[in-house]
User: What shape does this take?
Amino acid sequence: MIQLVELTKSYPGQSEPAVDALTLDIPEGEIVVFVGPSGCGKTTTMKLINRLIEPTSGRILLNGADVTGSDPDELRRGIGYAIQQTGLFPHRTVAENIATVPKLLKWGTERVRARVDELLTMVGLDPAEYRGRYPKQLSGGQQQRVGVARALAADPPVLLMDEPFGAIDPLTRETLQNELLRIQREIRKTIVFVTHDIDEAVKIGDRIAIFSEHGRVAQYDTPEKVLSEPADEFVADFIGAGASVKRLSLTRVADAAVATDWPTVQRGEQPRESDREFLLVLDEGRAVEWLPRRDGRGGLPVLNAVGPDHTLYDALNAMLTNNSDVVVVTDAEGTYRGTLDMPAIQDLIHADDTTSVPRRATKGEVR
Ligand SMILES: Nc1ncnc2c1ncn2[C@@H]1O[C@H](COP(=O)(O)OP(=O)(O)OP(=O)(O)O)[C@@H](O)[C@H]1O
Assistant: This one.
């Protein structure tokens, strides 16, 4: 666990401190996200944690030990650091880049080679194809993956990530976010993650620290709490409109009440009687077609099914894209598991809401 105690940084020549008496506990094995407007002191705080810069006053404790006076080089070997500009060495191969810290630690050649391949596989790059490439022969997203692999190389207990997915297109960014969450389920590091983007913070964070200015933390809470009970107007403004929709991204489809009573028919078989307008056609366990009940002709392909790792936000998005109020749910292998409908999502949005007006549809009733 990392404890920041009254941490202050005043840069020379600046009238106000960049970080002013920041006190914050970062629990072991969690992802804590620093989010806030430009210039509020997020990067300064990260650099203070790994002693790239020295505090003007205050202390940093790592697992209870004061590291403010320890050897910065030694400290940094226990702290992985991944940044937006990746900082990859352009004239070194992917493998050499990843091996930087293990070589400093004088690991044997075979151990380094095995670790490089293990990490490339972990971040979704085929070692045989990528270990010999140079950074400029990679896409931006691939460079970020290598940056994350390099930060993890010597298995540090702490990982600092400063807008690691900042300059990436939205689709790749989402993939990288999902991969980080998958990797974190295995490695359980203490991760401090900086972003400008509240949606990214909500998705990635076990806790979110919302910085206002000068490293002051306006709220430090779980994403649920930040969205449902913003501490003040600054936080409410920063979250922006649509907090209830954002809350949908906190629930995975795997944890939602998936309905299993949608009428289905096996491909090639005679449909059963049903009160639903459409039947779902299954082929070898997969939902492939919505078949109109009335004449059994002119079926529509099943598009944008959601799996267990998707969020309810993704499910809502799929419904809107399909212009439908129901979406097919599959398991990780793509096998049909059931359906999620709009009323189920509305129920979730309004779970603790006693004032909403009656809706047209009720649960289970699909128009
Ligand atoms: N080396 C420096 N010398 C002087 N002032 C600095 C230096 N680095 C940062 N600052 C100032 O400290 C404040 C905090 O900067 P910091 O980079 O920590 O903010 P940030 O929240 O990470 O911003 P951004 O989201 O734009 O990256 C800013 O006002 C910035 O101008």
Summary: The chain has 14 helices and 16 strands. The chain has two domains: 2-242, 254-349. The CA atoms of residues 263 and 279 lie 6 Å apart. Residues 355-367 have pLDDT under 50 and may be disordered.
